[in-house]
Amino acid sequence: MTPPEIQQYPKIILFDGVCVLCTGWSKFVLKRDTQQQFVMATVQSPVGQRLLSWLEMPLDEFETMIYLEKGQCYTHLEAFLKIIQHFAWPWRVLLILKRIPRRYQDKLYCFVASRRYRWFGKRQRCFIPSVEQRAQILQD
C-alpha cells in the first residue's frame, strides 16, 4: 500500500538527520526553495522509516539521500541532480555533473557518502527544524 505522504506531497527528500553534511544540504535546499515545493523527512523519523520500508530499503543503514518525485525514487547523485534542476542560476550550473557517466556518478557519490561522518561529523540527535522550516518537514 502506498504511504499517504506519496499521494499528498509530489516532492519528498529523505535525508540522514544525524549527518552534518546531510543536514547542511537540507538547510541549503530549504533556503533556496522559495516556492516551498519540497518537503523533507529524516530517515530516522517515523515518516522516513515508513517511506524506507515502502521502498524496501534498509531501515538502519543510510548510504544515500532519497528523492521521491511523484512516487518515483531517485538516489545518489541522480537525486541531487533532480533536486538541483528545480533551483535558479547559479546552482543549475551543477547540472553539468550529468555529463559524467552514471556508474561514475554513483561511485563519486558513494565515495563522499562513505566518508561523510569522518569528514563532516555526526550529531548526537536528529536535525531539529527552525520555526520557518517546520512547514516543510514531515513529522508524525
UniProtKB/TrEMBL annotation:
From what superkingdom does this record's organism come? Bacteria
GO molecular function, one example?
protein-disulfide reductase activity
- Pfam families this protein is in? DCC1-like (PF04134)
The record's listing under PANTHER family reads: DUF393 DOMAIN-CONTAINING PROTEIN, THIOL-DISULFIDE OXIDOREDUCTASE DCC
List the protein's name. DUF393 domain-containing protein
Q: Which organism is it from?
A: Spartinivicinus marinus
Q: What is the lineage of its organism?
A: Bacteria, Pseudomonadati, Pseudomonadota, Gammaproteobacteria, Oceanospirillales
